[in-house]
Recover the amino acids of this structure.
């Protein structure tokens, strides 16, 4: 199974502070085009929050218009820049009916891998909480099928990334989430956004990957006094589920130079089929 992830789309209808760096509508259009041209095609696209800048109806309709050509089904999740009621009404066609009243978490069981959306955003705040209510909800969903490989997708990374100002406005009580995941080894991958950078760690003995933004990135600066946004290339991730493990790739939405290596690819294929080694010329 191939899962694509896009995050922190930040669709906006004003320049604001970050609009100087990148036009997020333009980069998302390019991301949709790139995802549609992938071979093989992803079976699903997970959008891990901050889908708009301010959560207004206008920004969601702009977002839906840009996402409309996407081939694969999209499963969305809100972040701290979204607004729950507008998010729910914008994505009523994509979201299942069974969503808790106080958070937009849900389960999709239509694929070889179980997909659990975990929404820990708090309305009106930029930080987040894995509350007792989230814990009870997630534990009951994990209990429903403890054998099927499962991915949890969420907005806030549940660990300290080293980018201090983002960690300070991160997820509270993430240790309870880690404990739960450690006790549910069917969770093969946890993916998040919010940090606008690709970051990996091990979490509760499973892999945890943070996806870059389809708009601007945050600068890799581990000095706790600093924080900057940068126009590094927009990105996305592909998560391949094969042979009981996930392999995660980070791709960029960037028109760089390309060198065709198809001759070498056919040489390798020919040598492998003939059971010969890959000999240096
Ligand atoms: Fe964001
Ligand atoms: Fe965020």
């Amino acid at each position: 199974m191939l899962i694509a992830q896009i995050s922190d789309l930040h669709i906006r209808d004003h320049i604001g502070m970050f609009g100087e760096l990148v036009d997020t509508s333009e980069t998302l259009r390019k991301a949709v085009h790139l995802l549609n041209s992938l071979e093989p095609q992803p079976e699903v696209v997970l959008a891990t929050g901050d889908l708009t800048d301010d959560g207004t109806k206008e920004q969601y309709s702009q977002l839906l218009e840009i996402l409309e050509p996407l081939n694969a089904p999209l499963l969305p999740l809100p972040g701290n820049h979204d607004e729950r009621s507008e998010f729910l009404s914008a994505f009523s066609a994509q979201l299942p009916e069974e969503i808790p009243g106080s958070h937009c978490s849900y389960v999709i069981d239509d694929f070889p891998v179980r997909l659990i959306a975990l929404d820990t955003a708090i309305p009106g705040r930029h930080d987040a909480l894995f509350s007792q209510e989230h814990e009870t909800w997630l534990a009951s969903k994990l209990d429903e099928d403890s054998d099927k490989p499962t991915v949890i997708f969420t907005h806030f990374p549940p660990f300290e990334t080293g980018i201090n100002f983002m960690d300070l406005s991160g997820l509270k009580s993430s240790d309870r989430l880690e404990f739960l995941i450690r006790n549910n080894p069917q969770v093969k991958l946890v993916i998040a956004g919010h940090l606008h950078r690709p970051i990996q760690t091990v979490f509760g003995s499973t892999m945890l990957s943070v996806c870059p933004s389809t708009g601007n990135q945050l600068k890799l600066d581990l000095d706790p006094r600093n924080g900057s946004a940068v126009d590094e290339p927009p990105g996305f991730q592909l998560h391949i589920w094969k042979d009981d493990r996930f392999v995660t790739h980070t791709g960029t939405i960037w028109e760089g130079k390309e060198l065709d290596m198809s001759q070498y690819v056919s040489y390798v294929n020919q040598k492998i089929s003939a059971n010969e080694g890959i000999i240096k010329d």
Observations:
- The chain has seven helices and 15 strands.
- The chain has a mean pLDDT of 96.
